[in-house]
Amino acid sequence: MKFCFLIPDGVGIRNYLYSDIIKDLTSGSNEVIIWHSLGKAQISQVKEIVGLDFLDYDFIHRPELPLVKFIRETTTYARLKQNVKLKENPTILDNWMPRKIGWKNKLFYKLVEKSALFLNNYREIHSFEKIGFLQVRKSQAYKESLQFLRKTKPDVLFCTHQRVPSITPAVLAAQDLQIKTFTAVFSWDNLPKARLAFRTDRYLVWSDYMKDELLTYYPEIDENQIDVTSTTQFDFYRKEELIDERADFAEKYGLDQDKKWICFSGSDSISSPNDHEYLEDVAEALKNQNNVQLIFREVPVESIDRFKEVLSKFPEIKNISPEWVKSSQWGSFFPLPSDIKLLVNLAYHCDVVINLGSTMALDFAVFGSTAFYLAYDQPHERKRFVKDVYGFEHFKTMNGLDAVGWIRSKDAILPSIHKALSSQGEVGPDKMKWFERVVQPHRTETSSQRIVKALIKN
């Protein structure tokens, strides 16, 4: 069989090029080609890094036709409003963040929001989406995709990210050519956000929990179209060869191996606009603690600029930056394999991770590290309150579980950390139950192996 991996951004490199998927697929008589938007220099670098050779082709992200964008945005807003009613959770609508810059955009989104009022249920929403998909078939991008797929003749088109609208023409072209289409749900918080930009024949999800979410928010999708495969990003934690000796890791990054390591994992500026202030709070709380060392890892896809003042004020913070290749566009950012190794070792060697609602709590749970979620507002905050953040639908995965510790004030930082360090397992004792619920790993198979089986059998 011939598989075409459509990778619309650099993040997909970690899960699909650095994992064992391509190696396992091509170990038989299968062929894999990569359709990507990274550029020749970046993809050549990736080939060299992973030691794999494959045919690759440039994917060009074309602008949407105005009518297509209008229908997509209208159905997105309407679906969010339906999701709010269904879950009785108003925070779901916080995911509606259109760029209303300039009078044309303001007028456009006013029309979108008014039009969405006429879509009163999921059936009506999906019917309107179908009109948008028909309009996509009139686009130049659709015609280019038809030409490409007729030339390369894959049996399967696998889109590695489910929420990129410019992928839609390629998916529709594949379906019209009777090519089987797959996509994977990228993250644990994606489905309530109504950002399933296109429909494929099959869907790869992390867990039974995520499968139920997909069926709930997209009732037009049939249960038999969904494969529970977990996600390859957690496969790396099963590779013992990635774990360094503590002394070697400490020497490489200038750490004191005899101290307890606390990792503050940064969030992006939308999720946590005051993240630099939280880092300062943690550094202030720990500044006289001689037995601990604070490590800071910023979010990979943003600049470290807003943290520089804090890092200068507290030079004892060990800033270990993500090892990513960055370019002028976010979609072309991608991690190096060394960053996967770095993250595995941080999760393995650190005793505690602190952040504001990050999925990193799941990464560190793999090795039993305690996660603390910061759950207090900065005094000047007037918009992004933590009660709203933790009201997001994906945090309901913790319902009934004591999975993380909660730091509810600045004064609680130090005693919370002391408790975690002195009482192993007492804070967040259900962390692995939470991990199993969200990620659903398999005892004998990796996620890569399960994805390969799903791609081949269907």
UniProtKB/TrEMBL annotation:
Q: Which domain of life is it from?
A: Bacteria
Q: What's the protein here called?
A: Monogalactosyldiacylglycerol (MGDG) synthase
